[in-house]
Design a protein that fits this description.
123 residues, alpha/beta, Rossmann fold, five-stranded parallel sheet, 20% strand
Amino acid sequence: MNSKTTILVIEDDPDIQTLVRLILTGEGYKVVEAANGHQALTVLEQCSPDLIFLDMNMPIMNGWMFLMRYLDESKDHPPIIATSAQIMNAQNIPGISAFLPKPFDISRLRNLIQQNLGNHAAV
């Protein structure tokens, strides 16, 4: 059995989470999900994703708090694509590779994922 490129989707909105999961699984990626930063840290204890898709505004532990904890605990991490409905300057978000404003274009999401995975490909 071939291993698939794994993407961790951290998103509290179930509709957006479902949409992103359907897009990514349709592209051949394995998707692991978390509804907030706290859940994501637990998920990361059991898997090492190739990319993280991170909503910045979530309850319990938002994207900012997740990044502080995750980057502090993990010196070597995969590319992180942050997303938010609030306009943010991506250069002000530590540790991210790209920023995707909501609502986002599906083709832009696909392009950012492909760009940030580099040589990794869905299998």
